[in-house]
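Postdoc handover notes: sequence design on the structure in folder B. Input tokens:
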């Protein structure tokens, strides 16, 4: 079992602490949080060992799980990596692309592994259809949330949209060539609602909308590709796959047949996958343990997370 420690014991940090304690692949050693009052309360309530400093915690573990505010990601990661310890970093990987690239360089220099918490990659609705996503050419995403002061220290692009940016980059195997975007600050000092259009070199276009001032929550993505439409509901954990194939000469009387202007007939059929329930955060943490133990590449690499951050920053630069 890998010895793990958590930096940060806020809302998400407490979830990571609980899951690491439950996992068969980690031994939760303890945590550190500079908010002494809150840290002591959590240690007393849940029985986790509270360390007196970041350095003490790093010295006691094999893996550090960074669940701190984004501004501190780089400093925490740098200390961890230079101590020769593996690092899991909540998204976004860092505050700037330069910091993220520095983290990549350090991880290579000190020969440690790193993974970033783009948790939607582990959403069962997404994993159920990922192997069916074959060269999508138009993608539309909506990630809407009711207002919550937590997370408003960064633009909605880094808070919410970056989830969809990362997911899209993982299935579109082409470089982004052009970005158009707009954003509006409604209640926060940074944009609360944003829309972005990503154009890829292979012709794919992705249209992303993110809002943290909506009346309801929504996390849906739609992928359109040759002869198929795939819908993923990240919130409800549901997926729908609609495919078309050449219609048989003698179709079943209940078959749904479409005919285009050229007279080509296609039969529509549904290929909805089974979506197995899971705990996505536990899965991302445990697959990182597997990558360390087996010396394989993590599912969400530092490089991939850096590219998602790079695109997100370019979106913000359009505002």
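Designed sequence:
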């Amino acid at each position: 079992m890998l010895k793990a420690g958590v930096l940060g014991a806020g809302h998400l940090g407490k979830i990571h602490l609980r899951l690491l304690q439950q996992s068969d692949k980690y031994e939760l050693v303890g945590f550190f949080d500079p908010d002494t009052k809150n840290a002591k309360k959590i240690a007393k309530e849940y029985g986790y060992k509270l360390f007196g400093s970041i350095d003490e915690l790093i010295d006691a573990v094999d893996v550090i799980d960074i669940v701190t505010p984004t501004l501190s990601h780089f400093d925490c990661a740098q200390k961890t990596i230079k101590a020769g310890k593996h690092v899991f970093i909540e998204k976004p990987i860092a505050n700037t692309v330069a910091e993220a690239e520095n983290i990549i360089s350090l991880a290579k220099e000190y020969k440690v592994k790193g993974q970033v918490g783009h948790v939607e990659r582990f959403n069962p609705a997404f994993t159920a259809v990922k192997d069916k996503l074959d060269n999508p050419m138009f993608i539309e995403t909506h990630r809407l949330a009711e207002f919550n002061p937590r997370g408003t220290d960064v633009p909605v692009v880094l808070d919410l949209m970056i989830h969809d940016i990362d997911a899209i980059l993982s299935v579109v195997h082409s470089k982004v060539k052009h970005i158009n975007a707009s954003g509006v600050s409604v209640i926060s000092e940074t944009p609360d609602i944003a829309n972005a259009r990503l154009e890829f070199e292979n012709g794919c276009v992705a249209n992303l909308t993110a809002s943290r001032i909506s009346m309801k929550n929504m996390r849906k993505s739609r992928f359109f590709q040759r002869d198929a439409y795939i819908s993923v509901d990240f919130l409800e954990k549901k997926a729908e796959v609609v495919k078309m194939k050449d219609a048989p000469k003698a179709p079943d009387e209940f078959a749904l047949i479409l005919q285009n202007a050229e007279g080509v007939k296609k039969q529509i059929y549904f290929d909805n996958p089974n979506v197995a329930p899971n705990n996505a955060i536990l899965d991302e943490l445990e697959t990182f343990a597997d990558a360390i133990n087996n010396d394989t590449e993590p599912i969400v690499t530092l490089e991939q997370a850096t590219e998602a951050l790079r695109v997100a920053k370019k979106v913000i630069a359009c505002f």
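Context for whoever picks this up: The chain has a mean pLDDT of 95. Don't rerun without checking with the PI first.
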